[in-house]
Request: fold
Amino acid sequence: MRAFSRRALFYVLTAWAAITLNFLLPRLIPGDPVSRMLDRFRGQLGPEAVFALRALFGQTSNNIFAQYLQYWGRLLHGDLGVSFTSYPTPVATILGQGLPWTLGLIGVCTVLSFVIGTALGVVVGWRRGTWVDGFIPVTTFLTSIPYFWFALIVVYFFALQMHWFPLSGGYRPGLRPGWNGSFLTSVVEHAALPALAIVVSSIGYWLLGMRNMMVTTLAEDYVLLARAKGLSRGRIMTTYAARNALLPSLAGFALSLGFIVGGSIITEVVFNYPGIGYSLFQAVQGQDYPLMQGIFFVITMTVLAANLLADLAYVLLDPRTRVAV
Amino acid sequence: MTTNLLADVESGTTGQEDRPASRFGWLRGFRSARTLTGVVLMVLFVLMALLGPVFVRTDPSAVSDDVLSPPSGAHLLGTTHTGQDVLAQLIDGSRISLLTGFVAAALATVLSLLIGLAAGYLGGLSDELLSLLSNIFLVIPSLPLVVILTGALPEAGSLAIIIVISLTSWAWGARVLRAQTLSLRKRDFVEAARASGESTWRIIFREILPNQTAIVAATFLSTVIGAILTQASLAFLGLTDVTQWSWGGMLYWAQNSAALNYGAWWWFVPPGLCIALVGTALSLINFGIDEFINPRLRSAHIATKNARNKPMARRLPSDEAESDDTGASSPTHGDVVLEIRNLTVEYQTGGDPIRAVDDVSLQLRRGEVLGIAGESGSGKSTLAYAITRLHQPPARITGGQLLYTHPDGSRTDLLTLSGKALTAFRWEEMSIVLQSAMNALNPLLRIGVQIDDALQAHRPAMGAGARSARVRELLELVGIDPQRSAAYPHELSGGMRQRVMIAIALTLDPDVIVMDEPTTALDVVTQRQILQRIVSLKDRLHFAVIFITHDLSMLIELSDRIAVMYAGRVVEEAPAKHFYARPLHPYSQGLLASFPTLSGAKRVLTGIAGAPPDLGALPSGCSFRPRCPRAFDRCPVVEPPLLLLAPTGGSEDVAGRRQVACLLYDGADAGRSGTGSTGIPEKVQV
Reply:
């Protein structure tokens, strides 16, 4: 129970830290961003928006604590402000449009590359000391590839040269989004290349990690005893070695999620994919601070939620964590 | 180094414990081909950044009419849409990319060190708070944060980028270093420094930090990769000063000038390739360091496939094995169930093979307990694994026979069994109890399952009901409530776990059980209970035991016969009671004098001077000679053979025979050695 409450506390604190960071960031910008902003949007912003802008950068008569409380108040009402670049669309609306695309693409790809990478890592680790080890340098190369660069290569070959897949976007322009066959087919077609880029460039990370954990686990006495007992190779590999090796890998998965997701999101830019990664790019280009804040908030909360899921999976897999400590 | 490895194999530790002496030993990892490739590649890139502009004098920003031309003699890597030379950009760009990577990583590593060392060393509340901080930084997605931070600083120069990257990438290193510091803190040499009143920071910098060089280097290098990738991402998004060339910046221009649509692969392929190659080079170097930090990874190099489960090439003609006379009509203990004949095990670790077990011959009779004693490094554990053929590379059986007698009288040389036959034989006829039950039980499986799967593997026809009945029966045999078959290993006490191990060994009713220090990890009371349990089970189920331990007093109580090993050889073998009454070998005498008996008369404990020998460099003649209080002039010259002495009782009882490998009992010197008064038995040549 103590371990559980510690984890819960950790999540609450991390969420609080991320949200507070989000509050502080615009206030750290040097110079007078509000005047710059007002110059850029000359006459387009209503008085409400100007006030919101001043509030965002802390240029109100209230002291910082009052501002902080107001910030929380707005956040709890789901009010993430209004985007500058697509004024007057609320940030929440833009996020609501982009999030399903990102969750679908990045979420599925991250899980996919973890599962495939881990499975390959099990096999490569099991066959340590054989020719399979020759894959290690290849895999290190894959882990070092910048996501977006590999995305460029993939686009060049499969979209521009071969014309196998569409170049960019989330679905064919002109189609009405909905749960119908032609739309869904189009979505899958458009997701194929970004997915390929993300999975290939993140798979090596899991493969190497799992391979090393397998090698370490295979030296354990319980694996030796399993071999002595005459168990089948399949059972030793899965139930004795891989299952134990998976636990640290899963813990690593949870912790690396932020890193991986951050990298994958940039891939959306190459494909003009309608997710929040592309929105982040546009927000940064247009210095759309409310949108940046909103995106950072959403990404952090999603990663935290995914972490929580990984934690729960860990508890399911490891009986030792289930004891009341 | 080789002996270190051997000691690791013997003791089953990962070898991390005893290494303060080789603080920079990890540099040796650079010898591996993979690591060397990484180093060479990295050096090339650094040279490119340093010297490249000297050789390629083209201005990377100079515009020309030669637009979008593919690689040619004039432009080795072609040109951009404004006719700029790609190679010149690549070389110029390497400076910013590498500089950002290394400087940001250096700053991040300093942060990691400060926070990791402080958290690990100070412990308590500081540790809680600092760990919390680094975990928070780890979980928050760093790239979006960096993007927003640099987006917030519109005219972000290289320095600002470097600071932002280092501020968001220290957390992983801090976590790793904290864990390492925690484990170092408990080591003897740190404790000693604390006890002598050295200041905290002095201990951290003088005692702890130098022992972390490998991990710090590994952390630094992986942070470099991360920093280069982050810089490239930022540049690609146009968040850095894109008029300053960097690899990411080149990709920004390529992407924004539709290089893809022009098919100008020479423009966007090289910068990404450079980033990936630098990353690969650093990862390969890190691989070498990792293998140093974790010796288990290192040993994975040694080819495992060939050596494992492969029968020895030489096969004895079966009639020779059949007709062999082994004193089958022993009146007291019945026939020999296992005969170890001239068994030799070597560790092949690059140079000369090291003999851990040297020409060992022993006989185990049905229902008997044969005790094998010796210091660590004497080869006794290697022997245990070799007997069950569970030895792992680099250990290799290079000679001898392991003759097992089936109940029907036929014999099999276990060394000739191939993989399948061996798997079928082992556990059915011979099982093993490992030293640490904590490590030998799979922590994720219920104990009942771990007994059941052995049944399932060997008795495929047995139904689930019958199997679970057998599991219950086995647990009862070792004195565990059958209800607990659903328990996980961590829910049991140390003694109970060791009982489970015994139950697992008994699963298929084997004739022989090899026990490798089965009670070493237990407290004295539990030790006693386990030993009593083993004896009562043995009397009931009539299996024979090879009991291996360094605790001679335990062996004397438990065993029928005792063999003492030194430097891989059996130096004395005798019935337990005779051995206790009058050990012959000076080493046995020393061993016996260094343990108190569990019961019986008190005596002065003396111990043996000196340390176990280095098996790679054994002294000439008798290997115990340098430590022997009774060595004389022939000892360095003659290697003493194992002599069979006539039984003291005068009968021809094989179980009562004594053997000793010591020149004191070699007839030629018996008189001169001055031990004649102790009534040395008459010598019989083998």
Observations:
- Chain A has two domains: 2-76, 91-324.
